[in-house]
């Protein structure tokens, strides 16, 4: 993993979770804490999925953000599908 530390992952996860909630239209339902949680879990999900295709460990901060964003969008899509 990158040497971002816990605060780096919270910031990247929060930003990715917020943008993903804007993309999926769930921003009004979520607060800051849920955006951070969705982003961090999305980062884990995205990192796991992308590890089959790329070397995610050496991707850098931009790749980490895009990984979190992709995973957060997938996670929100799954949550929306389960709710319906």
UniProtKB/TrEMBL annotation:
The keyword Cell inner membrane does not apply. It comes from the Bacteria. It holds the Pfam family Transgly_assoc. It is found in: Cell membrane. The chain crosses the membrane at residues 6-23, 32-54, 60-82. GO terms for cellular component: plasma membrane. InterPro entries: Transgly_assoc. This is Putative membrane protein.
């Amino acid at each position: 993993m990158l040497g971002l530390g816990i605060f780096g992952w919270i910031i990247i996860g929060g930003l990715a979770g917020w943008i993903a909630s804007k993309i999926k239209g769930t921003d009004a339902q979520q607060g800051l804490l849920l955006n951070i949680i969705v982003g961090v879990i999305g980062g884990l999900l995205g990192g796991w999925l992308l590890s089959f295709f790329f070397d995610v460990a050496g991707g850098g901060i931009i790749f980490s953000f895009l990984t979190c964003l992709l995973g957060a969008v997938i996670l929100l899509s799954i949550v929306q599908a389960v709710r319906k």
